[in-house]
Structure formats: structure tokens, C-alpha cells
Design goal:
Oligomer: single chain
Number of helices: 8
Radius of gyration: 19 Å
Order of helices and strands: EEHEHEHEHEHEHEHEH
Shape: globular
Strand content: 15-25%
Strand order of the largest sheet: 4-3-5-6
């Protein structure tokens, strides 16, 4: 059987929200006292097209951003899958984001990503506001670092969907609250986490034995699948046209993780070779 995963809206999309307790922020000081915060996640619309929501909770003791898939450990990745399945099957969803305030900053138009994040944050007890980038002072020349520092004084977390991975990393570098990548030109970690969860729900730990094929441009999704294969120990075959290969940086990150988890990544320009005997 071959199960094909695409970007179509009837497939699971997974998004993260984070909240934490923060003492009053003084930008003249580098030291901020953090207490543990949580990651929460919900996704919408699985491959059977049913509306399904899931969330997970990981206790952390310091601020962390979710910019790329390697920002979580192998152990945390599997915990995400296990807890997502447990909650989807009916476990109660605690209001872990109650009293927390989040902003969605989007450069690009969005339907599913925006709705998924807004609803998931609210279902976890948080409040959320949508900020279109062209309505912010950024378009009038304000430095990205100033925007990051300003929003850090008001909010508990920021979700960013932008066309520049470098801008996202710069924002995170000056932010004292968690920053979550909802898509950039280089990486799409929430999407791939959701895709892997879809496979885990269907095949369990047997996903490590599947042949997974990716055919298309070496884009942000392809880059993140390389890392995902390494993080979860998957067997990934990637076929991209010559001149449209994935990022060598993400490929190497995936290979490094494969050495730990036993996964494998095979690149070829021949799509027939990639999909031969593929399970997914």
C-alpha cells in the first residue's frame, strides 16, 4: 500500500504554542528569571479528512525557540507523537496556556495555518492576536530587533510565518519569549511533525521500517523531511530535479541525526527509483 502525503488541506497540520512565566522584563539587563513553561500543540484535519485535534505537554526549564526540527531532541520527538495520540484518543486537554498571550505575525497570506494556530491556542486557554506584517512598524523602517524586544514585553509567545528564514532567526535572536516557525522559505517543522504523526497513527513504531518517498522540488518541506528522517530514524528516499536539490545544510543535519537513530537518507534525480516499492 502506498500512502501519499502532500500539502493538501485534508491532511494533518500540526502547530505548536508555547507559554511560560516571565518576571517583569528589563531590557537593560541580560538576566531574566524564567520558570518552567510548556509546549502545546494541536493539528487539524487528518488524512481521513476528519477534524482531529491533539495537544502535547513537555516541561522545560529554560526558554527555547522552535525554529527548526532539530530544536527538539529525539526523545522529545517520540514523546510528541505518543502524547498527541493519547490526547487525540480522548485524554483531557488541560488549559496550560491560560493567562498567556500570543501573536501570530504573518508575512504571507494564510488560511489553514492561521486558523489552526488561533483555535489551538484558544482551546488550550490562551489569547491570541493576528498581526499582518505590512500593518506593523516594520514596513516603516523599524528594526526587526526593536520589534522583537517590544513584543517580548507584551506577549508570552510569537508564531511567525515569513518568506525569510534569516529574518525569523534574527527575530528569535532578540526575543526573550518563545518564537515558533509556522513556515519559512527554508523550513516547515510543524508540517513535518504532523506528517510523521499521521504515519505513526497508522503504523506505530513500524514507521521505521517503511520506505518513504519524496518527489518534488528541494524546498522547505523537503529540507525538513531530511531532518525528520534523522530525528525519527526513518528510511527516506528523495527525488528532486537536477538544479533543484535540497539544502546541503539540512541534508547534513539529517545525516548526523541518522547516525544516532539508525535512519537513512537516499538522494536521486530519478523519481521512478525513489518511489519503487515505497510505502509512503
Amino acid at each position: 500500500m502506498v500512502l501519499i502525503i502532500t500539502h493538501l488541506p485534508n491532511f494533518v497540520k500540526c502547530f505548536l504554542t508555547r507559554g511560560f512565566e516571565l518576571s517583569p522584563l528589563n531590557l537593560d539587563q541580560d538576566v531574566i528569571n524564567y520558570t518552567p513553561f510548556f509546549i502545546g500543540c494541536q493539528g487539524a484535519r487528518n488524512f481521513c479528512t476528519k477534524t482531529l485535534w491533539f495537544a502535547w505537554f513537555i516541561i522545560l526549564v529554560m526558554i527555547r525557540h522552535f525554529i527548526d526540527l532539530w530544536d527538539i531532541t529525539v526523545e522529545e520527538g517520540w514523546l510528541v507523537l505518543d502524547d498527541s495520540l493519547r490526547i487525540k484518543e480522548g485524554a483531557p486537554q488541560e488549559k496550560i496556556l491560560e493567562g498567556k498571550y500570543f501573536a501570530l505575525i504573518f508575512t504571507k497570506p494564510s488560511t489553514r495555518t492561521r486558523v489552526s494556530f488561533e483555535i489551538s491556542i484558544r482551546k488550550l486557554g490562551g489569547e491570541v492576536m493576528f498581526l499582518q506584517e505590512n500593518n506593523l512598524q516594520l514596513v516603516r523602517g523599524e528594526d526587526l530587533k526593536d520589534t522583537a524586544r517590544t513584543l517580548s514585553r507584551y506577549l508570552d509567545g510569537v508564531v511567525i510565518r515569513t518568506d525569510s528564514h534569516e529574518k525569523l532567526k534574527e527575530f528569535a535572536g532578540y526575543s526573550s519569549i518563545p518564537v515558533i516557525n509556522a513556515l519559512t522559505d527554508m523550513s516547515h517543522p510543524c508540517q513535518v511533525l504532523s506528517d510523521v504523526f499521521t504515519l505513526y497513527e497508522r503504523f506505530g513504531k513500524g514507521i521505521k521500517d517503511l520506505k518513504i518517498a519524496y518527489v518534488g522540488d528541494g524546498n522547505n518541506l523537503c529540507n525538513t523531511w531530511l531532518v525528520g528522517a534523522g530525528l525519527f530514524g526513518l528510511k527516506l528516499f528523495v527525488s528532486t530535479p537536477e538544479g533543484y536539490e535540497p539544502s546541503s545544510y539540512y541534508y547534513q543535519a539529517g545525516e548526523d541525526l541518522c547516525k544516532i537513530t539508525g535512519g537513512s537518507i537516499y538522494l536521486t534525480p530519478n523519481p521512478v527509483e525513489a518511489v519503487k516499492d515505497a510505502d509512503v
